[in-house]
Amino acid sequence: MKVQTLEELQGSLALANIMSVIWLGDWEQYENIFAEMPETLKNEFPFHPFYNREEVEIWYDNHFFIPGSFFIPPYFSSYCCQNKGAVEDSKKSLLCLIGHYEKMGYYFPLENNLYPDHLGCLMVFISSILQEQIKAVQSKNTKLSVEMSALKNELLSEYLYPILAPLQKSAENLVKHPFIKEFLNYFCHVVEKEEFLS
To answer: Residue of 73, 114, 157, 158 with fewest CB within 10 Å of its CB?
Structure first.
């Protein structure tokens, strides 16, 4: 396992924050992030040129908030328990995830009335872990840094990797707006990249 430098961790945190605000539909925060970003860096995000708040809000709600003909579930449990034997495994996975949240004192899902397996909650949790890992690196606490890296890798491998293909399959015939389409492609690509994990 490659050890990330402080700069790489900060880059991973910035990416996780951007993906979090999009999964949560927090367009105010999205606009704040991109307003402070240099123009050259904005070009690294293929979905951003298609951002039009009014259109994106409507399509976000249609795809990720309002159940209907365009709905794409933003929940780990929607993808992990599609066969009969997986229901018990899904319950165990969710309990394990909630255990991780409690251990870290992460109450974001409760405070925001969201299910703990919402992709936005998972990404905010990964952001929290990255913040702790950055503090550990800055204070030269190698043990904590390694623990945070292992927890981050576990979350990615247990809760995000397994749903990338089903999420893309679920979205392929439903997504029409280029911002959402490009974001989903980008999200899957970034999560799969080894640099984001290490």
So the answer is: 157
